[in-house]
Every structure is written in structure tokens, then in C-alpha cells.
Specification:
The complex is a heterodimer of chains A (480) and B (227). Chain A has 480 residues and is mostly helical. Chain A has helices at residues 2-18, 25-49, 65-88, 95-117, 121-139, 145-174, 185-191, 197-215, 223-230, 233-261, 266-286, 291-312, 315-346, 357-360, 362-376, 382-396, 400-425, 431-435, 443-461, 465-476; strands spanning 54-57, 61-63. Chain B is globular. The chains are: A mainly alpha (480), B mainly alpha (227). The interface between A and B is large, with 51 and 52 residues.
């Protein structure tokens, strides 16, 4: 039953936030709902990792290893984003806007929490569509012409993707006519060998193209840097950290189903599509001029890495893929919190206008540098370990060419990210930043940076045993 | 229901024909209001086809789905658009297109033929009706995507998205008429929320940016941002 509670908590918080109860009620209610959901998600995930069964409605609302990992990540990032929002959004003067922000924030979190706990694909489609739709208002929240433009591009491309993938999901349902298993992710794996191949492949490609647009896979990535740079920073953390991963998770669910047929090499498609995204994103990172877009392109890159890793096949690569999902969600959300703090300090998104940030604001400068180093994949931080394990498993699986390309692209992106951040953080403080009045950063923002930074460091040197088991179970979810 | 079947099949062929024609109509009309009208006709054709399949295959769930679709797509969505999108946008003629209309129609013809090839290997569940609807639905999906790509104005792009959804639904029900009711009910409500959200967004875009021509939205580019 706890699954239903987890999902309904943000819904309750959305209603409370929407009511005019005073300025502080909405952020506190949001934070309380997210913290409770995160704690419940953690207990459920631990129960799954210990081999237990967690379900609320059989064949509709269930939790397996992969779902538990995603649920935990969504709840965790939602908590840090809620905490960050508290201080970050306080500068919004109009109480009505603030209430609407939190109401939408909660609805967005509600839809995101629903995706991993649902196992019936057609309902999952609905939940994914809801995440997209509830995101629109959040992207447009700043109400500048750029933000509105970003929201427009975001909604047109991703909703188009949703409409296309709808046919894919309906075709998928057709598979249930060929056997007695229920219409769930695990049921489809059982059914797959008996289903005509063209049913599954047509469903797969419709969903890959449609949801690929939502994930931001190249060439349908054009909306992503716009939306992920124009939204308020805590929303960017949610969008980049978990929302994209969440949609990719649905695509990853299809891989074992198609592999179970034994008649199509769907992994090769995953590798090709993944590598194209990694490659294009790596070179786009080199030429960005806006540091939030820098992190957004890095998200496209990481989505590609995860998809490639899932396609490399074998237990080690699958483990690498889910490990990367974990590290990316934690690190990328931290990056956007850091970028948000920097934005509060210097009030510009242009890389060229920010120099010597570490002098202007030590906290923002250090956070941005740490986030950049972490997301670029420098040792000994978490992303380095997962990327390294993916490359190693790629060599073990004898995918030499793909692994070499992946390594090359990751290195390009590494230097791209660090080159840009180096210029921003060090050097003489630029005139503009120097003149700026020192801003007192909100306490909750600094607290978020500390809390969100801890797991990145800890996971680099120590992997708790229950988390390791959860990752192993999640990796099993990628194997047929 | 046996001896009704030929009649049902011909009625459905009519509905599918109307569906395909209105998909072409979406591409060919120069008026924004015309686009909305063609979308209405297309949605009515889908609903008619859903009812016919419900009778033919005796799936009572589909009647409910058809009724909800009937309330939402041809009625509520155009109403919402009218309410939230500025009147002046609706009055506009001469919608700018990437290609001119005759060449668009030739592309559309090619897409329709492609749809028949794409749909050919897929298994159909809803009998003879399904065999007609499946390729027509896939064609609707492709034509909707093309409408989305070729049109420049916000409202027509939005209708392009709904046309994709209409195509998906028509083809989908031909393949799997017995989808769980919960899922099928979720689809039209989803469309309703999309219309609401994007309708409001269109209004804001028009107010803030001064245009809803997507081609004119160019401030977020790498080069543009550099200066």
C-alpha cells in the first residue's frame, strides 16, 4: 500500500500549495510531502533489494528492482529540489505565482513518481504524458520571452513524441493475444517468444522515436537545452536529473522484451542511437555559451551513455547502465543547484560574462566547479566509476569499436565541460561580477548543495551493500 | 450481428474515407478555422469508426470510449482553443507553410502510400473493419506529423499533434480493440489537458513574444546567444 501513499502525497501537497494559506505553507508542505515520499521510497527500495515483494494492485501497481531504483531517485531529487526551491523561489514577489509554482511542482513530481510504480505499459504512457504536460508550466514559469519560447518548443516536440508512441503502446498490447500472461513489463517478456516479430519491432520503433524525442536523443534533442536552461534551476534539476531518465527507463524496459524473442538484435540499435547522442552532444558541449545549456547538453550525452551501456549487453554493462542512471541523477541535479546558486550571484547565464566566480562568491564558485568535475566524470567521483565500469564491460563484451568511440566522446565532453567551467570559476574577477553587490545566498540553497553533494562524494569511495543489491536487481531488469 | 456486417463495413469505409480526406484537408486549407473544422470532422470519423467496431465485435467498453471521445475531441477541444487562443489568431488566413499546398499534397499522397506498406505486415484484430482502418490510421499519423512539420503557426501545429493522436487511435483500435478501459479512457482526457495547457501557452506566447509563428522563435540558438 505504501506505493499508493508515495504517489498520492505530492497530490495532497499540490492541493495544499494551491490554497491561499500564506507564503511559507506551500514550500513547507511540498518539502514535507517529498521527504515523506523519499523515506517511504527508501524503505520500499530496501525491501525490494532484500528480495521482498512490494505491490499495491497486482499487475498494475508493483515495484521491481529497476522500478525501485527510479522511484528512489525521483523521490530523492524531488526532495532536494523542493528544499532548493524554498530559498531560490523566495525572490518571487507575487504570492499567487508562488502558489502556482508549488502546485505545478507537486503535480509534476506526482506524475514522475507514478511512472516507475506502474507496470501496465498503457497506463505508464499516460503517466509519462502527464509528466510532460505538468512540466510545461514550470518551464515557462519565468515568463520571459525566452522561457515561453522554450516551453513552446518543449511542448510541441515532446507531445508529438507522445502521440506517436501511443500507437506503439497499443500495438504492444496486441502481444497479449498470443499467450496468457498479463499486460505488464514482466508479462511481456514471458509473451515475447510467441509474438510475431513485426508486432514487437513496430511497437519498439514507434516508442523509440516518440519517447526518444522526450528523452532528448539526437536528432530530436533540440528542445532540451532550451527547456533545461530556461526553467527555474530546481525545475532544471528535476527535468535533467530524473525526468529524462524516467522516459529513457520506459525505452529500456522494451530492450529485454525484444531480446527475449531471440530473433532481433535490438541491442545494436540501442548502441547506435546512444552513440550518436553521445557524440553529437559531446561536440555541442564545446561550443555552448550558456552554462545552464552546458549542463543540458551534458544530459543528452549521459542519456546516450546509458542507452549505449544498456545495448552493450551482459550483466556488467547492465550494471553499469543502472549505476550511471543513479550517478547521473544525483550529480546532474547537483549541477543545476550549483548553476542556480551561480545565477543568483551573477545574474547572467553567459559563460563569457562570468569570470573569477570563486572570488565573487566562494560557495557558488566551489559548487559549480565541484559539479562540473563530478558530471564530467573525474576520478574518484561517482560518475567516473560508472563510466569506467561501462567502458570495461564494453571491452569484455568485445564491442571494441563502440567502446572506443564512447571513450573518445566522453573525453571530448570532459574537456569541454571543464574548459568552460575553468574560465568561469578562476581568473581575475570580471568587471561585471566584481561590481555586483555581494548576494546573501539563501540558507536552504546552501543546505541543498551540501546535502546533494554528500552522496556524490560518498558513492565515489564507498558503495553501501543494500544499494549494491538494489543496483544488481535493477540490472537484472534489463536482462531478459 | 452476422448479416449486418456488410453494412457496417461499408459505413466504416465511409468513415475511414472521411478520416483520410480530412487529414488531407488539414494540409490543404489556408484558414485557421478551416483547420479546426477539419479536425472536428476527422475526430467524428474516428468516433464513428469506434462505434462501428464496438457493434461489430461486441466490445461494450468501446462504446464508452467513443462517447468520451465524442464529448472531448470535436466539442471540448475546439471550445477550449477558441476560449484561450486570441480571436485574431483564429481569423487569420494565409497560414505560412514550408512548402506550397500543391507540393504538400503530393508529399501527403506519398506518405499515404508509405502508410499502406508500413501497415501491411501488422496483424489486425478487428476483422475487415480493422483491415481498412489500420493503414488509414497509420496514414493519419504520418500526415499529422507532416502537418506539424509543414505548418508554422501554433494552433495548426497543435492540431497536427491531435491529428497524430487520432491516427494512432484509429490504427490502434484496429490492432487491439480490447485495450483495458482505464488506458483507453486516459487517452482522450490526456488530449484534453494538452489542449488546455497548450492553449494557455499559445496565449502567453502571443502576449510575450508577439508571434506564434514557430519559425520566428529564434532567440535560443547557440550563435544568437553568443553576442
Amino acid at each position: 500500500m505504501s506505493l499508493l501513499v508515495i504517489v498520492s502525497l505530492p497530490l495532497l501537497a499540490a492541493i495544499i500549495s494551491w490554497l491561499p494559506l500564506g507564503r511559507q505553507v506551500a514550500p513547507i508542505a511540498t518539502l514535507a510531502a517529498c521527504v515523506t515520499a523519499a523515506i517511504l521510497a527508501l524503505t520500499d527500495a530496501m525491501a525490494v533489494a532484500a528480495g521482498g515483494q512490494v505491490w499495491a494492485v497486482r499487475n498494475w501497481v508493483e515495484l521491481d528492482g529497476l522500478g525501485a531504483l527510479i522511484l528512489l531517485l525521483v523521490a530523492t531529487v524531488a526532495t532536494t529540489a523542493a528544499l532548493f526551491s524554498w530559498g531560490y523561489m523566495a525572490r518571487e514577489r507575487e504570492a499567487r505565482h508562488l502558489r502556482r509554482y508549488y502546485a505545478n511542482f507537486n503535480l509534476f513530481v506526482f506524475a514522475m513518481l507514478a511512472v516507475p510504480v506502474l507496470v501496465e505499459p498503457a497506463v505508464v504512457w499516460t503517466a509519462v504524458e502527464l509528466t510532460t504536460i505538468f512540466g510545461v508550466y514550470l518551464v515557462a514559469f519565468e515568463n520571459t520571452p525566452e522561457a515561453v519560447e522554450a516551453a513552446w518548443k518543449y511542448s510541441v516536440l515532446t507531445i508529438m513524441g507522445g502521440a506517436m508512441s501511443l500507437l506503439g503502446f497499443i500495438i504492444l498490447f496486441r502481444a497479449t493475444r498470443f499467450g496468457a500472461a498479463p499486460f505488464t513489463w514482466s508479462g511481456l517478456i514471458v509473451l515475447a517468444p510467441k509474438v510475431p516479430l513485426n508486432v514487437l519491432t513496430s511497437a519498439f520503433f514507434l516508442i523509440l522515436v516518440g519517447f526518444g524525442a522526450k528523452v532528448g536523443l539526437v536528432p530530436l534533442h533540440t528542445w532540451l537545452p532550451d527547456a533545461h536552461s530556461q526553467a527555474p534551476s530546481p525545475v532544471c534539476a528535476l527535468l535533467s536529473g530524473v525526468k529524462t531518465t524516467l522516459v529513457l527507463y520506459v525505452i529500456l524496459r522494451l530492450l529485454p522484451i525484444l531480446n527475449a524473442t531471440g530473433r532481433i538484435d535490438v541491442d545494436r540499435w540501442a548502441i547506435v542511437v546512444g552513440l550518436v547522442s553521445v557524440g553529437i552532444a559531446a561536440f555541442l558541449i564545446l561550443q555552448v555559451t550558456d552554462y545552464k545549456r552546458l549542463f543540458a547538453f551534458s544530459t543528452v550525452e549521459h542519456m546516450g551513455i546509458i542507452l549505449t551501456a544498456a545495448g552493450l549487453g551482459g550483466a556488467a554493462a547492465h550494471y553499469g547502465a543502472v549505476y550511471q542512471i543513479l550517478n547521473h541523477a544525483l550529480t546532474k541535479s547537483f549541477c543545476f543547484f550549483a548553476a542556480g546558486t551561480a545565477l543568483l550571484t551573477v545574474d547572467t547565464r553567459q559563460i563569457a560574462e562570468v569570470r573569477g566566480l570563486i572570488r565573487t562568491s566562494p560557495a557558488a564558485g566551489a559548487a559549480l566547479l565541484f559539479g562540473g568535475i563530478a558530471i564530467a566524470g573525474a576520478p574518484p567521483l561517482a560518475v567516473f566509476l560508472s563510466e569506467f565500469s561501462i567502458l570495461r564491460s564494453g571491452i569484455q563484451q568485445e564491442h571494441y569499436f563502440a567502446t572506443a568511440l564512447l571513450a573518445a566522446f566522453v573525453i571530448v565532453a570532459f574537456f569541454g565541460i571543464l574548459g568552460h567551467l575553468n574560465r568561469m570559476v578562476f581568473g581575475p574577477a570580471a568587471l561585471k561580477a566584481d561590481q555586483a553587490v555581494p548576494v546573501r545566498l539563501p540558507m536552504t540553497c546552501l543546505l541543498t548543495l551540501v546535502l546533494a553533494g554528500i552522496p556524490i562524494v560518498v558513492l565515489g569511495i564507498y558503495m553501501p551493500a543494500p544499494l549494491h543489491r538494489l543496483l544488481q536487481m535493477a540490472a537484472q531488469g534489463l536482462a531478459s | 450481428m452476422g448479416h449486418f456486417t456488410p453494412l457496417l463495413i461499408s459505413l466504416n469505409s465511409l468513415a475511414a474515407g472521411v478520416f483520410l480526406l480530412s487529414a488531407f484537408g488539414l494540409l490543404a486549407t489556408r484558414q485557421m478555422q478551416g483547420c479546426v473544422r477539419f479536425f472536428r470532422i476527422q475526430s467524428l470519423a474516428v468516433v464513428a469508426s469506434i462505434f462501428l467496431i464496438a457493434i461489430e465485435m461486441q466490445v461494450s467498453d468501446l462504446i464508452a470510449v467513443g462517447l468520451v471521445d465524442l464529448a472531448i475531441k470535436p466539442v471540448l477541444i475546439p471550445w477550449l482553443l477558441r476560449r484561450y487562443v486570441r480571436e485574431e489568431l483564429f481569423r487569420r488566413r494565409e497560414i505560412e507553410q514550408v512548402f506550397n499546398i500543391p507540393s504538400s499534397l503530393i508529399v501527403a499522397l506519398a506518405l499515404t502510400l508509405t502508410a499502406y506498406f508500413l501497415a501491411a505486415p501488422l496483424p489486425v484484430a478487428a476483422g475487415a473493419i480493422g483491415e481498412i482502418n489500420l493503414p488509414v490510421g497509420v496514414a493519419g499519423l504520418l500526415l499529422g506529423t507532416y502537418t506539424l512539420a509543414a505548418r508554422r503557426e501554433a494552433v495548426t501545429q497543435l492540431i497536427g499533434i491531435f491529428a497524430i493522436e487520432n491516427g494512432s487511435l484509429l490504427a490502434g483500435i484496429a490492432i487491439a480493440p480490447r485495450l483495458p478501459l482505464v488506458a483507453e479512457m486516459a487517452f482522450p482526457f490526456d488530449m484534453l489537458i494538452i489542449a488546455l495547457v497548450i492553449g494557455i501557452l499559445t496565449r502567453i506566447t502571443h502576449e510575450r513574444v508577439g508571434t506564434t509563428e514557430v519559425g520566428a522563435l529564434k532567440s535560443l540558438r547557440e550563435q544568437g546567444a553568443a553576442k
